[in-house]
Amino acid sequence: MDLKKYIRDIPDWPKKGVLFRDLTPLFKDPAAFRYALEKLCEPYKGRAIDKICGIEARGFIIAPTIAHMLEVGFVPVRKPNKLPWQTESVTYDLEYGTDTLEIHKDAIQPGERVLLIDDLLATGGTAAGVVKLIERLGGKVVGIGFLVELSFLNGRSKLVGYDILSLVNY
Fold this sequence. Notes:
Layout (H helix, E strand, L loop, with lengths): L7 E4 L7 E4 L1 H5 L1 H12 L9 E5 L3 H12 L2 E5 L9 E8 L2 E8 L8 E9 L3 H12 L3 E10 L14 E6 L1
Parallel strand pairs: 3-4, 3-7, 7-8, 8-9
Antiparallel strand pairs: 1-2, 5-6
């Protein structure tokens, strides 16, 4: 299935000169969404994975379903002051500035094998920041999966040494 047919291009959003890749048409089509989820799961079936980390906000659409399909736990990674327990945080560079994300300090135990799932790989700052959080808690990142990768932004350069899967490349 050609998933690009289900991704809408929105020029000049969130600011002039940016071409935003909108995944909501893919999410609303049951066959395309199911196909994408199955393709994200395939390489990880039968592998030793303890948890799936999903990044706010669109990673929350994908990651819990992947966790369910692989029969492992789901860990949310959220924007500051959204998690009710003790947190570990990381600040990282974005395509348009900086941002901060948090995870519960007890979400990942030392030695646990974690798969990181998000909707899109752009500059790699967000994923690299979450990798730091996972590893700071003692987790081992066994893979990083994305629906879409904007290859021209070279986000993989911030994730060297990690197993990366992306279903659609621009």
